[in-house]
Design a protein that fits this description.
By secondary structure, the chain is an alpha+beta fold. The chain has helices spanning 2-19, 25-29, 53-59, 109-122, 152-155, 166-171, 223-232, 246-250, 281-290, 293-300, 329-338, 355-368, 382-390, 409-417, 431-441, 447-463, and strands spanning 33-38, 67-69, 75-77, 80-87, 90-95, 130-137, 140-145, 186-192, 196-201, 214-219, 237-238, 255-270, 305-307, 345-351, 373-379, 397-403, 466-479, 482-483, 499-500. Helix 9 (281-290) packs antiparallel against helix 11 (329-338). The longest helix has 18 residues, at 2-19.
Length: 503
Amino acid sequence: MKKFEFLLKTAAVLAAALLMGQSPVWAAELKDTIVFCQGNDLTTMDISIGMQERACALTNNMFDSLFTFDKDMNVIPDLAESYKWLDDRTLEVKIRKGVKFHNGSEMTAEDVVFTMDHINERGSLFAGNYEKTDITGDNTVAIRLKSPNPPLVNLLAVPYAAVLPKAVYVADPAGFARKPIGTGPYKLKEFQEGDYYTLERFDDYWKTPAKTQYLTLRIVPETAQRIILLETGEVDVSYEIPGSSVARIKGDTKLQVITRDSMKIITLSLNCGSKGPLGNANVRRAIQKAIDKQTIVDSFLYGYGKVSNSIIPSSAKEFAEQENYKFDVEEAKKLMKEAGYENGFSTTIWTDSNQTNTEIAQALQAQLAQIDIDLSIVVQDPNTTFSRLTAGDDFDMILDFFNLVSAHADQVYKRLLYSTSTSNWSNYKNPEYDKAYDKYSGTVEGPERDALRAVVNNFFVEDVPVISIYNETKIIGAGAGLEGFITSPIGSHEYQEATVKKN
């Protein structure tokens, strides 16, 4: 029915244009494929596992979640038709009828129950606070928690909370990453890992089908090459454009620059569990004081980004500053002396080959030299960093980022410092923090929750496990003929309405 309605609408528009003596430009002059590129390969096409932005950049176009975000990052229903809290631990969700998966099967309440259980097993969202999900009526489920968690709806709006087809996933969990099936506007056509991924329009999409038939992601590690491909028209959209290249793109009439404030904070994670200097809180405070964030923003971002004193973006719910920060080299030297490292030490920083990140690592190298810290830079693929961390390899500092995909501060507090979190890259283990977080997260919104949140937040301020450097502005290069492209603060950009005019 959806496909039939789409064809009727298309025919009506075409007929109207012909009656008016007009040539329907889009029918003859639009590309049938939009090609976009990014620097790093996907970690996986299984959206329930691939939480990274570089994975969701593609999989977000193949899957839908119960909820989603509008352009201002407010939560709105998506596969959920409506919802209400039955009590402070039970969320009732009415599920849309008639939604189809890419294999033609209809999404049911059983698929939603399976997805919630699977998310809980993955440990990525519920974090031990999940009890069960029941089918309570006609296409209605109740998601039950062990204790209150006000940000639940925000969490269920993230890309990796997408609803999965139970029968397909259970039949071959390992193979799902190579043959993903969702309810989104595009379905997988073909791919060559590390090279390209091509999606095809899903004509039975429950919303209006996508305007462009194919969508291809190309993996192009070198920034310069991504820009050249954009200039030659071989790609239509290029992600991760450095601020230094904006003027070049703007100077080309065939191109355009698209910007959007993001939910991503560029961070410096410090190994609090180290037996060396980084295990000392005064050393971490000294490093924080020795970093001239404003110079980094001015020198390398060209105005596209802003200094941040919190890993929580200012537009997120329950925002709070997390650093008692002021650039002060002399104060940093005093802290180094108090820590017993007046003569400095040698250490390393891990980063990736992203041009901006390598430049920032070099800037940190120069700035920390002022307090006699000899910083060696180790450049490696993000997947390598992740593998080394999960394998328990030792490290000192990691220049990376945190993308607050839920737009709620609770996710920062849980994922970055909780002792059992797989995202606790600072290796911060503090039972008092865990207790404080548990009290905060299980308290309903109001003055009591606000007071408990301030206690949790103070661990970031005092112990400096992570240093926030700046809040990123997303810079995207595109052909001038791109229209209908919807940018996302979390990097899950949408192509459902996108078209590209032929040159």
